[in-house]
Amino acid sequence: MGRVPLSHIARCQRCAESFASSRAAEVDDWTDGHRCDPELAALLVLVTERRAA
Ligand SMILES: [Zn+2]
């Protein structure tokens, strides 16, 4: 009890990182300020290509 539900969730399509908050404005801030981890994004591209092949 007393937990605030994280009703707003953003997920980056490139690096699959996600952020959840009870406030939409915080999620918007995360989306605006998010920068993909280049190594993680590159790794996910490799995984996606391997699955598609
Ligand atoms: Zn990202």
Automatic annotation (TrEMBL):
The name this protein goes by in its record: Uncharacterized protein
Protein species of origin: Actinomadura graeca
Source organism phylogeny: Bacteria, Bacillati, Actinomycetota, Actinomycetes, Streptosporangiales
